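Could someone model heme C with this protein?
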Amino acid sequence: MKKKILILLGLAVALVVILLVIVSCKDSTTAETSAAGSTVAETAASTTVAEVVAGDEGACADCHNDTTVIFSKEVQYANSVHGTGLTFERNDADCARCHTSEGFTARIAAGTFEIADDAPAIQNASPVNCRTCHNIHSTYTEADWALKTTDPVTLELTGDVYDKGNSNLCVNCHQPRPGTDIPIAGGADVEITSTRYGPHHGPQSSMLLGVGGYGEYKGSSVHYDATEAGCIDCHMTDSAFGKQAGGHTWKMAYVFHEAETEFLAGCLKCHEDIETFDRNGVETELAVMVEELRVLLVKQGLIDDKGAGIAGTFTAEQAGALWNYKTFTEDRSNGLHNPGFAKFLLQTGIDALKKK
Ligand code: HEC
Ligand code: HEC
Ligand code: HEC
Ligand code: HEC
Ligand code: HEC
Ligand code: HEC
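Reply:
Sure, complex below.
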C-alpha cells in the first residue's frame, strides 16, 4: 500500500517537473520575441511582477484573496474625509506635501518636510489613500501593509518631538504649519497682515502634546501620556460601527436613527463608564470659555462677527489671545485632545484681553 502511494507520488512529481520545463521554455521564447519587438522597459516591468509571482505563488493572494481584507477598509475609507474631502486640489509644492498622496510620498522618500519650492504643480493629484499611508505594491507581499513612516516627528512650529507609535504617521500632516512666530507676553507689538492669522488647520498633534500656545503651560497632557498610539487609540479603534466611525473612517461621530451619536469605543478602554464626550461637563465648560474669549476678541477689533481675522497692529497680549483662540478652534476637538491645555489656552487669552 505505502509503496503504491510512493510510486504515484513519484510519477506526479515527474509530471510537474516536465510541465515546468515546458512552461519555462515557452516563457523564454515569448520573452525573446517580445524583447525584439517592444521596448526594454516594458519587458523589464512585466518580468518583475512575473518574478514575484514565480518566486512566491502566494504573494499577490496574500492581499488579493477571498477575504475582505482590502474591501472592508475601502468601504470605511470611502466614508472618510480623507476619501471625500476636496483639498487635494491644493497641488502646488507648498500645499501638496500634506494635501496630495504624490506630494506626501515624495517628501517622505526625500526625508524632508518641504518638497522643492519650484517643483511643478502635481498633475492628476490624488487625495490621501491606501498608497499614501501604506507601502502598497512595493515588494508585492503582505509586508507592504507596513506604514510609509512611523519615525518620531519633530514639529515644524515648535521643535517639540511627537512620538506615539503608528500615529507618528498622521503627525507629519496634522501639525501647525511653520512660518508665524508665537507671540510672547511683554514682547513687541505684532503686525497682523493675514486674516487667517494662527496655526494652519491641523494643530491636533501640538494640542495633544500641550505645546504651541501663547503662555507657558506646565500642566499635564493626559491623552498624549496615557495613550499607546495617540490618534489611533481614539480614531481607529477597530470596534468600528460598520463604516460609520472609527477604523479607516477616522470619524468620532456618526448619525444613528437620525441622531448625532458619539463614537466612544476608544474612550471606553480607559474610562469604563463614560457615556458622553462631555465627561464631567468639560466640553460645556470649555464652550462657555471660548465664547467669552470670542466676544472679547470682537470687542477689541481682532476678529469680525463671523470669526474672520482683521489686519492691524496689536499688542503681543492681544495677538497671543487670538493665537490661542485659533489654536483651540482649529484643533476642532472641542478641547478633548487635551482638556487641561485647552482650558489654559482659553483662560490665558481671556486674562490677556481683560487686562487691556
Ligand atoms: C499588501 C497587500 C497587497 C499585495 C501583496 C498586492 N496588492 Fe494589489 N492592491 C493592494 C491594494 C491596497 C490596492 C488598492 C486598492 C484601492 O486603491 O482601493 C491594490 C490594487 C491592485 C490592482 C488594481 C489597480 C491598482 O493598481 O490600483 C491590481 C491590478 C493589483 N493590485 C494587482 C496586484 C498584483 C498582480 C499583485 C502581486 C504581484 C498584488 N496586487 C499584490 C494591495 C496589495
Ligand atoms: C498626507 C497627509 C495626511 C496624513 C498622513 C494623515 N492625514 Fe488626516 N487629513 C489630511 C488632510 C489634508 C485632511 C483634510 C482633507 C480634506 O478636507 O480634503 C485630513 C482629514 C482628516 C480628518 C477629518 C477632518 C474633518 O474635516 O472632519 C481626520 C479625523 C484625520 N484626518 C485624522 C487622521 C489620522 C488619525 C491620521 C493617521 C492615521 C491621518 N489623519 C493621517 C492629511 C493627512
Ligand atoms: C503640514 C501639512 C499641511 C500643509 C503644508 C498644508 N496643509 Fe492645509 N491642511 C492640513 C491638514 C492636516 C488639514 C485638515 C485639518 C483638519 O481637518 O482639522 C488641512 C486643511 C486645509 C483646508 C480645509 C480647512 C477647513 O477649514 O475646511 C484648506 C482650505 C487648506 N488646508 C489649505 C491649504 C493650503 C492652501 C496650503 C498651502 C498654502 C496648505 N493647506 C498647506 C495640512 C497641511
Ligand atoms: C491616513 C493613513 C491611512 C490610509 C489612507 C489607509 N490606512 Fe490602512 N492603516 C493605517 C494605520 C495607521 C493602520 C494601523 C492601525 C493600528 O495600529 O491599529 C492601518 C492598518 C491597516 C490594515 C491592517 C494591517 C495589518 O498589518 O494587519 C489594513 C489591511 C489596511 N490598513 C488597509 C488599508 C486599505 C485597503 C486602505 C485604502 C482603502 C488603507 N488601509 C488606507 C493608516 C492608513
Ligand atoms: C483621547 C482621544 C483622542 C485622541 C488621542 C485624538 N483624538 Fe482627535 N478627536 C477626538 C474626539 C473625541 C473628537 C471630536 C470631539 C467632538 O466632536 O466633540 C476629535 C476630533 C478630531 C478632529 C476634528 C474632526 C472630527 O472628526 O471631529 C480631527 C481632525 C482629529 N480629531 C484628529 C486627530 C489627530 C490627527 C490625532 C493625533 C495627533 C488625534 N485626533 C488624537 C478624540 C481623540
Ligand atoms: C489611553 C487612555 C485614555 C483614552 C483612550 C481616553 N482617555 Fe480621557 N483621560 C485619560 C486619563 C488618564 C485622564 C486623566 C485622569 C482622569 O480624568 O480620569 C483623562 C482625562 C479626560 C478628561 C478630562 C478630565 C475630566 O474631568 O473628565 C476628559 C473630558 C476625557 N478624558 C475624555 C475622554 C474621551 C471623550 C475619550 C474618548 C474620545 C477619552 N477620554 C479617551 C485616559 C484616556
